[in-house]
Amino acid sequence: MTEDMGLNRLGNHMKRIQYHRYGGPDVMQMERFEPPALRPDDIAVKVVYAAINPVDWKVRRGDLKLVTGRKFPRAMGCDFSGEILAVGSGVTAFKLGEAVFGVAPVKTCGALAEVVVAPQTVVGRKPESVTFEEAACLGTPGVTAWNALIDKAHLKAGQHVLINGCTGAVGAAAVQIALLQGAIVSGTCSADAATQAKALGVTEVLDYRKTNLATLSRRFDVVFDTAITMPIATGLCLLSRGGVFLDLEPGPAKIIRSLFDRRLKPIICTPRPAIMAALAEAARVGRLSVPSAQIVDFDAAIGKIANLEQGVGSRGKAVVAIGTAV
């Protein structure tokens, strides 16, 4: 189905969470919108579930305005699952009605909507064995962990990885992807999350409240700060010869520093077809899962985002139920 046959008939009857200026939770509104015209490489997806990520409110606050610009209204949300409603003229890898999951680019976002439009390069097929709810959780955590461990660290079997925050969404995905590569994983988390960490496959679980990482005597081939709490100096001192420190807050200063210190690797979530396919296959065979902790209705999503942003809410991934699969 082409754009004219698919999206144009929807008009402005679709709803999404959007905002008309950068700011705090109060700028978010549930409003009607008209999906944008499809470019040749675009796919329109009827969203079944969308997952909430910290990047959602970072974009809305304007933290990434150098990338996102000042064109409004802007839509909320990156991670989604659903069914293909329409495709652009240049799309050949996907067809109408296929079940997919994806990561909408931060420049446009739009996953917290009844319909999201995104390039086919950021979309993967949902395996039949994976639910729409589960698939919506895979995108940003899985892609980010893959970018870090595979693309930047070039992780190999037998290497030792320390994952700071190993039971968070990105941390849990990183543990599983590291194990897929045959690595040995140590991780930090709270004491009450230790059982979850061990179930993921973490060999050595460290209580972050009781462990001073700077005093550890052992060294690691890769240190991945998924919790974004570790000073760069601490991360670097934990490295073995030739090791790398993976940093999830790549500001300009860190990017410049990384040009001179090859041990420091700033990470930006960058999906591509090969990664989406690899995540789908790992999920299909039961080797990758980012479980949701709570499902909220679409009408309650703004309140849930605001609570999570303020540190209020359940541990784990929050998922928004938006539509139903055919």
From TrEMBL:
Sequence ranges assigned to domain Enoyl reductase (ER) in this UniProt record: 23-320
Q: Which keywords does this chain's UniProt record carry?
A: Plasmid
Q: Which SUPFAM superfamilies match?
A: GroES-like (SSF50129), NAD(P)-binding Rossmann-fold domains (SSF51735)
Q: Which PANTHER family match?
A: ZINC-TYPE ALCOHOL DEHYDROGENASE-LIKE PROTEIN C16A3.02C
Known Pfam families for this protein?
Answer: ADH_N, ADH_zinc_N
Among CDD domains, the record links this protein to: MDR1
Its lineage opens with: Bacteria, Pseudomonadati, Pseudomonadota, Alphaproteobacteria, Hyphomicrobiales
Q: Which domain of life is it from?
A: Bacteria
The name of this protein is Alcohol dehydrogenase GroES domain protein
Task: Report if keyword Disulfide bond is assigned.
Answer: no
